[in-house]
Design a protein that fits this description.
The chain contains seven helices and seven strands. By secondary structure, it is an alpha/beta fold. Helix 1 links the parallel strand 1 (about 1-10) and strand 2 (about 30-35). About 35% of the residues are buried.
């Protein structure tokens, strides 16, 4: 059984989708949800779905080995689902090609520090992009620069607002993120 730990900072809709997707899977299980925010809604979702969860602070993540030790003990793969902190080198080294992130744009466009959620959707609309989409990629030492695993795009209509783009992005995330993770993990295990 391959074990997934999800790191999330926000509301946790993607985390909830992943927990539900893998709950009856015989090869992959979400075993832990961690957040850097004590009031993140993702923790409520994880509790409701009976998935162990907890929080950590910047010191435990960046300086001490507290989070690293927990992850090494509990997880085989790390999934970032709206997690906003940069992953420290020691965690990347401990999980080579086993940390996967989803980004709400077609990288390399609209990636990097500060480019998340509505910041991305607003930029896409303001710049009158003809298309946007999602990117699922491995995590390396730089924000949104890891090797791309999967991209899915859609046409941006002239009438689309940032909220419209966000809604379309969420639909792609919910449909593709669990399947791509499953494929990567199963391929990795062979």
């Amino acid at each position: 059984m391959k074990r997934i730990a999800i790191l999330a900072s926000g509301s946790g809709t993607n985390a909830e989708n992943l927990i539900n997707y893998f709950k009856n899977n015989e090869e992959i299980s979400v075993v832990l949800v961690l957040s850097n925010k004590k009031d993140a809604k993702v923790l409520e979702r994880a509790t409701r779905l009976k998935t162990p969860n907890s929080t950590f602070d910047r010191n435990d993540f960046m300086v001490t080995d507290e989070v690293l030790s927990l992850l090494k003990e509990k997880a085989d793969f790390l999934i970032l689902a709206g997690f906003l902190w940069k992953i420290p080198a020691k965690i990347i080294e401990a999980f080579p090609n086993k940390i996967i992130n989803i980004h709400p744009a077609l990288l390399p466009k609209y990636g990097g520090k500060g480019m998340y959620g509505m910041h991305v959707h607003n930029a896409v609309v303001e710049n009158k992009e003809k298309e946007t989409g999602i990117t699922i990629h491995y995590v390396n030492e730089n924000y949104d620069e890891g090797a791309i695993i999967f991209q899915k795009s859609f046409k941006v209509l002239e009438s689309d607002t940032s909220e419209d783009v966000a809604q379309k992005i969420h639909q792609l995330e919910y449909e593709y993120f669990p399947k791509v993770i499953e494929n990567v993990i199963l391929e990795n295990g062979r």
